[in-house]
Design goal:
Chain lengths: 438, 259
């Protein structure tokens, strides 16, 4: 009888961890559906990016106030997880406040610090809920977020408030019990924030208080396991993937487009046929029509996106009413990848569903509006490059489908025949110079 | 003023210090030709020995590549690299950020490795070295100038300071637009947008940017890209401010202010 809570906890922990690991494995499998791309060079710079961009949230500080608020939630959430370690050990061992005898007065200090963070998280989450739902910030009321994405954002904020409140209630009930000298409730010293809640609990009997304290403990840890398993389905996955995504971010100047060696060689062999190897086979396809044709980093980008919309808010096309939204490009890529993942779960291997990222999830009109200005890439706090995906899809449009607006076809033929995008005679190219001489 | 081509220099057994890559806009577009002439005049005045490729220059392929036509880009790159390597070119300066980006970042892995400078960087060097001497109390002294960041200089290549340093040498008052440097707003020309109609929307990008430039109250908008120049000029015209606000390339401002 005595062991039932411990067994219950173990079952919960095993199921919670197993389900999370299974889904994480699926996501990894999905990301690796993308093409190989070696991004392991220069680890020094990459660690630097990880520390500055992911851990230090450097790009968030373009707006210092919001960055600070975000930092409170993030730091609070991460650091309070140290407390979860105690909760997990208590759960397994059937102990109560395991670290108290070990840490002594430092324990009181530590829990006080956690409570401060918990209160910080609650306050900021309330501010964020107001920002998202009452203040009409353009990037939050955008139609990109209609439906599930908007609810997702609110669920996360709401859950964090609930989890933190449970933590504070647990400590408050604990303190009242301590004051009454209840069995198992060791004296911890006063906790500043939960102490303020004790008047709410003073009127209850010992049994009720133990019930409240235990319920808060259980709901807190169950909540954490539920939240852990919610992450992979949510935009909130960025709290994990921001780190690898910053590490594997491209290190080259943003202006450099990815080369296509296959095309480079085709041109080379056309110009110098003697260089063509006997077994040279033409490449299967050009650019990206579907997620399989993108690089694995593009797919990691898609899972790392937290749909904040800073990219879209800085996109010149979107700002002037065009259909393109870099955030939507990332969301569409993740949606497609998830659909493909479900298809694989169902059929063992991917069975053609007659759909593709290009056309079914991202339209030609969106792709055509991009000025390749890199504002979206620059704006992203978690090192996502929406422009990479846009360019790969554009390549497929032009090279696989010959799908170009009429004016571009004219431009192409001018470049090919007159060596300039306009219809001028190449003989006129240096006329300005001869005019200067006379 | 005689401008030599590489072919002429080779024939005379000479080597230039730097190749001036003019670019298609600088060669053919009437407005951009003025920038080309201004920059060539500066180089000539300070005694930089330079040459152009003349009729042997061809589009770098930037608009084709960004539209998605990699084949055409690779063809242009192949041709240009053959010509550049054939002349043993080491150092290139260009007045076009798109050419600059392609030559500097995209040609090396195709076999064309050169030291590539944007003209604003070279101008800054020449001013720092005291080779460019500016008039006391020139045309821009005390005037408000707002610099429009070109995406292909700024975000693409992290060049934000050189053009500003050059403008500071004019003793002018530099005023920034709300979105500047890494937050700068595109003029709307990049990604081959220059060569097609806009997608459906509610405003043209160049008008959005021109409005922002007008908000600064500057009488001059400085550009460092021939395409930005065209876009900003059109935007200002659309707002019927072309008599109050002039759009000039950094090189034109320096050329007009030299002793």
């Amino acid at each position: 009888m005595h062991y039932i809570p411990q067994i219950g906890f173990l079952v919960l922990a095993v199921i919670g961890s197993f389900l999370f690991a299974r889904k994480a494995g699926e996501i990894k499998r999905n990301i690796l559906l993308g093409k190989k791309e070696d991004l392991s060079n220069d680890p020094g710079k990459r660690w630097n990016n990880l520390i500055l961009l992911a851990l230090g949230q450097k790009k968030m500080f373009k707006n210092p106030l919001v960055a600070l608020l975000h930092l409170v939630v993030y730091a609070g959430f991460i650091i309070i997880n140290i407390e979860v370690l105690e909760i997990v050990l208590d759960g397994i061992l059937g102990t109560h406040r395991l670290f108290l005898p070990v840490l002594g007065s430092a324990y009181t200090w530590l829990i006080n610090f956690f409570e401060l963070l918990a209160v910080g998280v609650i306050v900021v989450c309330v501010i964020f809920l107001i920002r998202r739902n009452l203040i009409k910030l353009k990037r939050f009321i955008s139609k990109d977020l209609n439906g599930w994405p908007r609810s997702d954002a609110n669920y996360i904020l709401f859950t964090e408030i609930v989890l933190m409140s449970l933590f504070l209630c647990m400590n408050a009930a604990d303190q009242v019990l301590q004051g009454r000298g209840a069995e198992h409730y060791h004296t911890t010293g006063a906790f500043f924030f939960s102490d303020m809640l004790t008047p709410l609990f003073n009127g209850f009997s010992d049994e009720t208080l133990v019930g409240i304290e235990r319920s808060a403990w259980w709901l807190h840890i169950i909540g954490i396991f539920i939240f852990l398993n919610y992450l992979p389905y949510s935009k909130h996955l960025h709290i994990i993937l921001a780190f690898p995504n910053a590490y594997y971010a491209r290190l080259e100047p943003q202006g450099k487009l990815k080369n296509m060696p296959a095309v480079q060689n085709e041109v080379l062999y056309a110009m110098q046929p003697e260089l063509m190897p006997a077994d040279a086979a033409p490449p299967a396809s050009f650019g990206a029509k579907d997620v399989f044709d993108l690089s694995w980093k593009n797919l990691l980008d898609a899972y790392s996106c937290t749909e904040c919309g800073r990219c879209t808010a800085s996109c010149p096309a979107n700002l002037t009413g065009k259909l393109l939204s870099p955030r939507k490009i990332m969301m569409a890529t993740r949606d497609r990848l998830e659909d493909v993942g479900r298809n694989i779960n169902l059929n063992k291997t991917y069975q053609d569903d007659g759909k593709s990222l290009l056309h079914d999830y991202i339209t030609v009109e969106e792709l055509r509006a991009c000025t390749t200005c890199n504002a979206c890439v620059e704006a992203c706090p978690v090192s996502i490059a929406p422009l990479d995906i846009i360019m790969e899809l554009r390549r497929s449009l032009i090279m696989e489908e010959s799908n170009a607006p009429q004016e571009w076809n004219g431009t192409f033929s001018n470049i090919e025949n007159n060596f300039a995008p306009w219809k001028f005679s190449p003989d006129e190219r240096d006329r300005w110079a001869t005019e200067m001489a006379s | 003023m005689k401008i030599n081509t590489m072919a002429e220099m080779m024939a005379a057994g000479e080597t230039p210090e730097v190749l001036f890559w003019v670019g298609c806009a600088g060669s053919f577009d009437q407005r951009a030709q003025k920038i080309t002439r201004a920059f060539a005049t500066i180089l000539d005045k300070v005694g930089v020995k330079f040459a152009i490729l003349g009729k042997e220059e061809a589009c770098t392929g930037d608009p084709a590549r960004r539209a998605g036509n990699e084949f055409l880009f690779q063809m242009m790159a192949y041709q240009n690299i053959q010509v550049l390597n054939g002349y043993g070119i080491k150092k290139i300066v260009t007045t076009c950020p798109h050419c600059f980006n392609t030559l500097k970042n995209e040609y090396p892995e195709l076999g064309g490795t050169y030291e590539v400078l944007h003209h604003t960087t070279l101008l800054q060097q020449l001013i720092d070295e005291g080779k460019i001497k500016l008039k006391e109390g020139g045309e821009f002294k005390g005037k408000k100038i707002s610099y429009h960041d070109s995406c292909y200089l700024g975000r693409a290549n992290d060049i934000y300071e050189a053009p500003r340093k050059v403008l500071e040498a004019l003793d002018a008052e530099l005023v920034e637009m709300k979105r500047c440097r890494s937050n700068g707003l595109c003029c709307g020309a990049g990604g081959a947008q220059m060569f097609k109609e806009d997608e459906p929307g509610n405003k043209r990008i160049n008008i959005e940017r021109a409005d922002e430039a007008l908000e600064t109250g500057a009488g001059f908008i400085a550009s460092a890209c021939p395409f930005c120049n065209t876009m900003m000029t059109d935007g200002i015209k659309n707002r019927e401010k072309e008599n109050e606000v002039a759009v000039l390339d950094v090189a034109e401002m320096i050329a007009a202010s030299m002793q």
